[in-house]
Design goal:
Layout lengths: L7 H15 L4 E12 L5 E9 L2 E10 L1 H15 L8 E11 L3 E9 L1 H21 L17 E6 L4 H11 L8 E6 L7 H13 L7 E6 L13 H8 L5 E5 L7 H5 L2 E3 L2 H50 L2 H6 L4 E3 L17 E6 L2 E6 L10
Parallel strand pairs: 3-5, 6-7, 6-8, 8-9, 9-10
Antiparallel strand pairs: 1-2, 1-4, 2-3, 4-5, 11-12, 12-13
């Protein structure tokens, strides 16, 4: 049987001619970045892909030549907030290229950063809607934290600057307040970050009542580097945690979904340390104030008692017979030495003693005369 046989070059040339006739000009393509490699010469090599519910359905190699990369890559990073990286949804303008030696490739000469930012925002809004539907947005707000939280679980990367700043600020506080912290390590950016952070939060919460609070913290970074903190898995893990979760992620202007569902959020890791230092400062001031009030009340009570003693002392001194005698009066004592308050019972011949301030005089009763009116 006669066969139609062609050589490989002829086959590849036919494929090239067909592709170039089907896509004679540039076209915009939606895809996801699977891999990025920059070469020393300045060329940027990407792998683009597309997936559906069943998995990967398309894949192609793409190139941004150095002459274009020098302009496109910095512009994209400035607008999108992060460089081209795996996991991004992108809209790129390509020229279909087919080489008999290297096969199909897409030559990229433009990238629309607004599309990438827009896709992330769509995902973000969908995540918020899902959390609301599942009743998870405000679940943490119903929890109460201990009056003096001491045992803290920290979810962070051990070598992160934000983690170091937090630990230095918390444990080095000027007031000497002591805290116990345990680190639950997690990857804080990239494709593996959502699962890593969620697993760390869940691991800390599974310790039961071992911790008074769980802290999720990361210093600043590019917007898309922080996109993991808008991920549903991270937000759901925080919302379902049985103890209060506090977050400090990114810069002052950042506000992530994990912040929305947390018990409390602050802007920076050092501000998160201040939350706990301030709690102890308030308690210290309360105890000091209470001690001051107690001391003041005690001193006032002592002062009142001293005042009453002074009054009694004055009365006692005022009633001292010696003071009466000093004013020119005299006391008459009967033979038993008892002060005589009346002439009744006295008889002529009784011996009495008259007491003056400067001495006593022994006397004898000669006559007893009742006063007028008796």
């Amino acid at each position: 049987m006669e066969r139609d046989v062609i050589d490989l070059f002829t086959l590849q040339s036919g494929v090239r001619a067909t592709l170039e006739s089907s896509f004679p000009g540039r076209c915009w393509v939606r895809a996801e970045v699977s891999a990025v490699k920059s070469r020393s010469g300045g060329h940027c090599y990407l792998e683009l892909s597309q997936s559906d519910a069943n998995g990967l359905i398309a894949k192609a190699s793409a190139i941004i030549w150095a002459s274009k990369a020098r302009l496109l890559c910095p512009y994209f990073e400035k607008v999108a907030g992060a460089p081209l990286q795996p996991g991004m949804s992108v809209l790129v303008r390509v020229q279909v290229n087919y080489s008999q030696l290297y096969g199909l490739s897409l030559i990229i000469d433009d990238v629309d950063p607004a599309y990438t930012v827009g896709e992330k925002e769509k995902e973000r809004q969908a995540t918020i809607a899902r959390l609301k539907e599942e009743g998870l947005m405000d679940r943490q707000k119903g929890l109460e934290m201990r009056r003096l939280p001491y045992r803290l679980a920290v979810v962070s990367a051990p070598d992160a600057a934000g983690y170091r700043d937090f630990m230095r600020h918390l444990h080095g506080n000027a007031y000497g307040f002591a805290f116990h912290t345990d680190l639950f390590e997690a990857v804080m950016q990239g494709l593996s970050a959502p699962d890593s952070i969620a697993e760390a939060v869940e691991a800390a919460s599974e310790e039961g009542n071992a911790y008074d609070a769980i802290l999720v913290l990361r210093g600043g970074g590019a917007s898309l580097d922080l996109a993991c903190f808008d991920d549903y898995r991270v937000a759901a893990a925080i919302a379902k945690c049985p103890v209060p979760v506090l977050t400090a992620v990114g810069h002052d202007q950042d506000y992530h979904i994990c912040d929305m569902v947390s018990w409390k959020y602050v802007k920076t890791p050092t501000a998160l340390a201040d939350v706990f230092i301030d709690i102890y400062m308030d308690e210290d001031q309360y105890v000091t104030s209470f001690g001051t009030r107690l001391k003041t009340a005690f001193l006032n009570k002592i002062a009142l008692m001293n005042s009453r003693i002074d009054v009694l002392e004055s009365r006692i001194i005022g009633a001292d017979p010696r003071r009466i005698l000093e004013r020119g009066y005299a006391l008459v004592l009967d033979r038993r030495g008892v002060v005589m308050k009346s002439s009744a019972g006295s008889r002529p011949g009784d011996s009495v003693t008259v007491m003056f301030s400067d001495g006593t005089v022994g006397c004898s009763v000669n006559e007893v005369r009742p006063s007028d009116g008796h």
